[in-house]
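Worked example 3. Consider a protein that binds magnesium ion.
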Amino acid sequence: MLKPALLFILALVTTFNLHAAQQPYKRTLKLMGSRFDITVVADNEAQGEAYIDWAVGEITRIEKLISSWDPNSQTSAINANAGKKPVKVDRELIELIQRAIAISKLTDGAFDISYASMDKIWKFDGSMTAMPDAQTITNSVEKVGFQNIVIDSEASTVFLKKEGMKIGFGAIGKGYAADKAKQLLIEKGVSAGIINASGDMNTWGKQTNGNPWKVAITNPLDKNKVFALLPIVNSAVVTSGDYEKYVTFNGTRYAHIIDPRTGYPATGIISATVFAPKAELADALATSVFVIGIEVGLNRINQLPGIECIIVDDQGNIHKSDHIEIEKP
Ligand code: ADP
Ligand code: MG
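Given these inputs, the predicted complex is written out as structure tokens:
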């Protein structure tokens, strides 16, 4: 017969062992047109794979709702009925659009999901030989304007007032999907993980060694140089800006993110990294900072509690918001 005390110790050891056996499991796959790396902490491989399947299911579900490429998505139905009639959609989509409009208001229209209505006059694949003329640029944003997205919350409908108007979730969708996948896994009892959508990181819990998840911030001008290593504790970090996608005219470098108010591409910034409790907000703000520029961008970010930002300008200089602490790698 085992003594109760011994039994207790045995139980403790068993619990400890079970815990020690937890391992990270990772899967890389293409979702929403981007590379996703999903990492979860689990007791064994079968459990890890099952957890990852849940995350993939959730991201796929959201992609079906918000994709503008899928002609059967609710988003495509809204776009197809622009200037014609309101379209009834899921509550979830209404709320996502409402939050996107709130960010438009916060950024004076620099962020605008109706950017998708722009004429595609800029190409960033090296094929452009001359800058479009001023009139063409002005005309290209004629149909853009979040003020013309009409939501009837009670009827759960969305109406785009202008014919030819479109909305797109390119700057917020990946973040939203990552938040939802994370939320689902937390509800299912998964203790820790990372949803990494092409470098946009969203974490919860800790690494199996007890340390927080860390993200390396590289200088986009020199991908081999990590200039900061930051712990990401139950929060998200999103970087905007593809340093390879730009076009140069008269010595000015134009980035692939276009100011929806003017039709001109953003200038001066190579990358904007935003830290926030939620990936959706980080995603939207990273794109916004790109458009509003270094000074206004940092100013806005400094006014938002719990949100920080690192900007690399086109000279390779690094600019930070007020409360960010960088741990040297
Ligand atoms: P990345 O291309 O690195 O993912 P972002 O997260 O900033 O960069 O998203 C850029 C995408 O956001 C564009 O490809 C486009 O789909 C969309 N977009 C571009 N400009 C705007 C804008 N001003 N407001 C909202 N969405 C935008
Ligand atoms: Mg973004």
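Take a moment to read the result before moving on. The CA atoms of residues 191 and 257 lie 36 Å apart. The chain has a mean pLDDT of 91.
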